[in-house]
Amino acid sequence: MTSSEIVQGFLDASASFDGDHAVARQYLTDEANRLWEPSTGVAVYEGAGELAAYGYEVTFKASEAGRISAIGHYDVAAPGTELKGAFALVRDQGEWRIDRAPPGLILSLADVDRSFRSLSVYFFDPTFSTLVPDPRMIPVLGPGQATTLVKYLVAGPSEWLLPAVRTGFPNGVGLGIESVPVVSGVAVVDLTPDVRLAGDSARQALSQQLVWTLRQVPGVSDVSITALGQPLSVPGVAAPQPRDSWPGVDPGGLPPGSSGFVARSESVVRLAAGGSKPVLGGAGEGQVSFVDIAVSRASDFIAGIDAQGTLWRGPLGPGRPMTELLSDANLAHPVFDRSGALWVVDADEGLILVRPDGTRTSIRVSGLEPRARVRSATPSRDGTRAALVVQSGPRTSLLLGRIVRAGPGGDITIDDPVKVESKLTEVVDIGWSDADSIAVLGSVEAGSLEVFDIDLARGSVAALGAPEAPVSIAAAPGLPMLVGGADGQVYELTGGTWRARTNGTSPAYPN
């Protein structure tokens, strides 16, 4: 075999995790085998890589798609990033062997699709009222998925998410044994004895994190939490804890019975089985004609902007009127956050927070490129992250920032916005389709606008099509995506097909 064929064989075999990459190690010298540490991370490339041999060195070059860190966190590469690697080879008994390889793994997107699964470890928002997913890429083979997930959970959140979340695990509490076996559907998590010093609320919190994290593992029906092999008492739940325990901390965060809302010229209507009906209060009685609406998480308040740029807010109840909050022709894209305040984009001032009493304050976005402007900002329903539509020159893109609050009711900053995909060249509107995925109305290169679903764990982009001339989008966990069309119809995605649902504009789900 030539030196290039040896390197290609090593790269192909690297995607197999059997026996700690036993097949790939056959291409290495004894010294290189001792030094190579595949667990340090993964460089991911797309398309076909190129190999070039120069004497005792072979170089690899490809278009970089992203990086998977040692803890499974995926970072999307900037468009145009090139991945390069160099392999030093020697002759060993007349055959080529790799004597020095780049650290970690070099895998294609297809390799990653076959060898990894996107799962999440769960932490809490700062108020400990809802869980927050921290997406990770987990190898299909190697240590069991349950073991890997719990090790990541105990180690804490990824560096990017760390400032926005909290953990229920007390300091010093870790795994008592370095594995999480799954026996007859029960995942057994044995923790260090210090956990017995934890109070009831801490025991409940760490249980919630463990159950939500482990319920993703195929075959897990219950979670048993022990310390030194003895059951850990946790108030409010059976032992072992069923996988559907703790529904109250669902990161999706919508109450049962939630549905979509649509603006019409004469009223706002709520979608219901078989049709729609006007909402109660001023919004449903035609007090204001809205061009853009937002609905609170509990579906008890509505807000909207009229054609003159005035921002209104009001309760959804019999005889309850809408109240004018701000009058400014430059306002756009209202959305409720978890606290009940409104996020609105002012073309002059940027992103602002409007409280129920009408007071306003700026939301600072830290880390954008010079002259980049926020066109819309949608907080996740867990309140820790914000999906941003950002314009830089003629191009609009999707970024994800973490939300940092200066205490209850304090100022809000969106920090360290990062790219979560590298395919879209235009982004018009977005909605959180789940706690770890975002629906986007956008386009690729010169293509038409359509709907895409972005998996935040791996930056993958799934095209879902669109009705003709789409204008806006709404999404929510477990509910069909909605698209407002230029033809005055709202369309619903059911069974992979876009169908007209009702007349109106600006579809919205509770947030």
Structure description:
There is one protein chain. This protein is 11% helix and 45% strand. By secondary structure, it is mostly beta strands. It is built from six helices and 38 strands. The protein is globular and about 90 Å long. α5 (145-155) crosses α6. It has three domains: 3-103, Nuclear Transport Factor 2, Chain: A (Roll), CATH 3.10.450; 115-249, no CATH class; 261-508, TolB, C-terminal domain (Neuraminidase), CATH 2.120.10. The strands form nine sheets. Strands 1, 2, 3, 4, 5 and 6 form a six-stranded mixed sheet that branches. Strands 9, 10, 11, 12 and 13 form a five-stranded mixed sheet that branches. It has a five-stranded mixed sheet with strand order 25-29-28-27-26, with no helix packed on it.
Question: How would you summarize this macromolecular structure in one to three sentences?
Answer:
By secondary structure, the chain is mainly β.
Q: How many structural domains are formed by the residues?
A: 3
In percent, how much strand structure appears in the residues? over 45%
Q: In angstroms, what separates the terminal alpha carbons? A: 59 Å
Largest sheet: 6 strands, mixed
> Could you say what the CATH architecture of the largest domain is?
6 Propeller
Q: By helix and strand content, what is the structural category?
A: mainly beta
* SS field, number of helical segments: 6
pLDDT < 50 runs, ≥5 residues: none
Instruction: State Rg.
Output: 25 Å
Per CATH, what is the topology of the largest domain? Neuraminidase
- CATH superfamily heading of the largest domain: TolB, C-terminal domain
What is the C-level CATH assignment of the largest domain?
Mainly Beta
Roughly how much helix do the residues carry, as a percent range? 10-25%
Number of DSSP E strands:
38
What is the residue-averaged pLDDT?
94
- Shape type: globular
